[in-house]
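Just wondering, does anyone understand these C-alpha cells?
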Amino acid sequence: MAPMSNADAPGDTRQQDFRTLLRSLPVWDTELPHFDPATAPADPLHLFQQWLSEAAAAGSPEPHTMTLATADATGRPSVRTLMLHDADERGWHFATHRTSRKGRELAVRPEAALGFYWPAVGRQVRVQGAVTAAGAEESRADLAKRSTGALAAALVGRQSEVLSSYEELEHASDAAWERARREPDAPVGTWTLYVLEAQEVEFFQGDDRRRHVRLNYRRSPSAESGWTTELLWP
C-alpha cells in the first residue's frame, strides 16, 4: 500500500505538518556580519551600494532582486518581485510596461516602496519615495542594455492581461524570440524606466540574539547631507 502523501492527509494533519515545517526551518544559521551605525555614511545610497556588493560577495543569490509595492486608486496594495536596474544620485531604477498592473498603479499613485532581503548576511533594506517615469529615449536605452531574453519578453507584452491558454503564450514567445534575435534594437513602445527618489531608506542588520540594528535615513533639506538618521527599536 502506497504511503499517504501530505496532499492526501486530513486537513488538520496537513495544517500541523505545515506548522511543524515552518518552525523547523533554520534562520540565519551562519555567522552574521557586524554593523556599527556610527560608521555609516551620510548618504544612504553609498551604504546601499556597499551592502548589495557585500551580499553578492557573500553568495546571496540574485542580490539585485527586490520587491516592489504599489497601490491602486483606492489604496489597495499589490507587491511583486523584479530586478533593480540601477541606483544612483537620481534614485533606484526599475522598468516595466506602463500598461502592466504596476505601471497603471504608478500612473495614478506615483509612489512606491522597495524591499531587499539578503539572507546570507541577515540584511534588509527598505526604500520608500516618489516615482517618476523616464522619457522614451531613456526607456529604450534601458531595454537595449538587457539580454535577448529580456527583449523577447518585452516584445511579448500584454503583461498582467488574462491569458486564454499557455499555448497562446508559447506561440507569442517563439515569435518574440525570433524578432529579438533578428532585431536586437526592436522598439517596445510601452517599456518604461521608472526612478524612485527615496524619501526614507531603512537598513536592517540581523543579530542572532535578536538585537537587530535598524538605521533609518529620512530626507531632510535642512541637513547638510540632505539626510537625517535615527536608530529604531527592532
